[in-house]
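Quick one, T. Sequence first:
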Amino acid sequence: MVIGEAPGAEEDRQGEPFVGPAGQLLNKMLKAIGFEREEVYITNVLKSRPPHNRDPQPDEIEAHLPILYKQIALVKPRIILCVGRIAGNALLGRNGSLRALRGKVHDFHGLPVVVTFHPAALLRNPQWKRLAWEDLQLLRAHYDRLMGTATR
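Structure tokens:
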């Protein structure tokens, strides 16, 4: 499962998460670690776009979390990738920087969670792609261990 922050303008128009340029990059990121988009459930913490594309307010996040929790319960993912600081903090109940969140496997009620850069941030700051690649490799290695397919 991949969890982002909130729908962007294109996502609002199409009613589907990650369909614009950031979505195209997300597809490439997933493919690079051996996942097709069709194999991954993709959602956002917020189900509607905040006005003027601003960061979600704490009360907005709180209002949408029950829906996200229900999605997680229904999908039953083996592992979760949070893209962006806001998604990572919202799911994990924290208030940390992306630097503090990424590079490790977190626990969400027994589910492993990896946090990395949002694809839109990578489009604006390509120098961060190497760090995101490290996070993706961490996610894939942990997933392979979970599934018993890790190579030695």
